[in-house]
Amino acid sequence: MGRTDALKPRRREDGYRPITRAALPADTVSLARFLIGKLVVRKLPEGIASGRIVETEAYVVGDAAGHAYRGMTERNRSLFLEHGHAYVYLAYGISYMLNVSSERPGIGAGVLIRALEPQDGIEIMRLNRGIERLRDLARGPGRLAAALRIDRSLDGLDLCREGPLWLGCGGQEPVEIGQSIRIGISREADRPLRFYLRDSPFVSGPRSFKE
Where are the domains of the chain? Predict the structure, then answer.
């Protein structure tokens, strides 16, 4: 597939099937890798909007860069739910971030969804973002949350069942998954816990993080 073809949205007829919890790895690093190629599906009044996951970051148990590091609070309690639940938080008072809880109940850890390749509901996503360029609609965690209209009202949602937001089967396995250190953090910044679809123009970050 060429670069031009990769920028064309593709509809997946089986993409609306929620992934079962039994299919999700109950391990943070394994889940971060597993989610590459899967779908985030958002049901809105205007219709369905979805994107193929092309980039994730794992925030493992005991990770000083993770929100669960100091224990459970009212804000981060969703990270301690059974794997496959949404943890949504507001970063720097500006952008919402979508994470997936990733361990057994009571153990705090999660996977940040960093970037999507838009699939369905492209016009909905363009209106939500206020931009036209397909490549930039969901290239970055704040952008994808804005494109899919994700906010704190979805925090704690079960992503393994059909509803306003869920994880879907993408119908296309990734050809090659890259791995690197995480982006934009200061604590434990040298850990190789970022996963991404190689050669995807929808992956975020500078070129040096895409090799």
Answer: 3-209
119-152 in b/e burial notation, b at 16+ Cβ within 10 A? bbbbebbbebbeeeebeebbbbbbbbbbbbbbee
Q: Is residue 68 within 8 Å of 80, Cβ to Cβ?
A: yes
The helix (H) or strand (E) run that includes residue 89 is: strand 86-91
Q: Do 165 and 142 contact (CB within 8 A), yes or no?
A: no
Residue 45: both structure tokens together: 């009044």
Residue reference for tokens 């397909």: 134
99 close to 79: Cβ distance less than 8 angstroms: yes
Q: Are 210 and 196 in contact (CB under 8 A)?
A: yes
Report the DSSP beta bridge partners of residue 160. Answer: none
Contact 84, 159 (CB under 8 A): yes
pTM: 0.90
Query: What's residue 92's pLDDT?
Result: 86
In tens, the pLDDT along 35-55 reads 999 999 999 999 999 999 999
Distance of CA 61 to the CA centre of its chain: 19
Neighbouring-strand partners of residue 196: 55, 178
Q: What counts of helices (H) and strands (E) characterise the chain? A: 4, 8
Q: Domain 3-209 in CATH: superfamily?
A: Methylpurine-DNA glycosylase (MPG) (3.10.300.10)
Q: Which two tokens stand for residue 37?
A: 């190629």
Q: Give the number of other Cβ atoms within 10 Å of residue 83's Cβ.
A: 23
